[in-house]
Amino acid sequence: MSAKILIVTGDAAESLEVLYPYQRLREEGYEVHIAAPARKQLRFVVHDFEEGFDTYTEKPGYTWPADLAFSEVDPGDYAALVVPGGRAPEYLRNDPELRKILKAFFDTDKPVAQICHGPLLTAAVGALSGRRVTAYPALELDMQSAGATFQDAETVVDGTLVSARAWPDHSGWMREFLTVLRAKAPVT
């Protein structure tokens, strides 16, 4: 049986930041499950960078079913975790079930990939203190407040934690995450 990877997300997650790792990891041979606050059809968004805007824009994106509710997740069943961005992390960080899941992955030093606003979740469980990370650049102060050293780079690898700024960095992010996964949780 292949190793299982968990993606944690919710409504208003960035479509590409959920679906690119979902498809890329499946392509690699991993079994991938998406968990959300409830089993339901999730509504993702598309963030884009348009000339004349001081920040990204947001449009409706794809819909996708959640395989599991956070309350149904046993972190011990999974070899690694993916934490997408978008607006979802802003409210998901308040979910006590999700915080238990995140803490379990960090407590056991399992691989974690985070991107964009996803590090708001890992910050919420105190998992960034003393680590090097990147995130959406507007989160630099949030990352520093969480005790992390922020680097404005395509991808930052700190042990088993792999972070990226946003969807334009996908190829580097997944390349580095797969390097960590192949060492810690190879496909069998």
Automatic annotation (TrEMBL):
GO MF term list: peptidase activity
Entry-linked CDD domains: GATase1_PfpI_1
Protein name: Protease
InterPro entries: C56_PfpI-like (IPR006286), Class_I_gatase-like (IPR029062), DJ-1/PfpI (IPR002818)
The keyword Protease is annotated on this UniProt entry: yes
Organism the protein comes from: Streptomyces finlayi
SUPFAM superfamilies: Class I glutamine amidotransferase-like (SSF52317)
Keyword Protease: yes
Keyword annotations: Hydrolase, Protease
Annotated DJ-1/PfpI domain residues: 4-178
Family in the record: Belongs to the peptidase C56 family.
Entry-linked Gene3D superfamilies: 3.40.50.880
GO terms for biological process, alphabetical: proteolysis
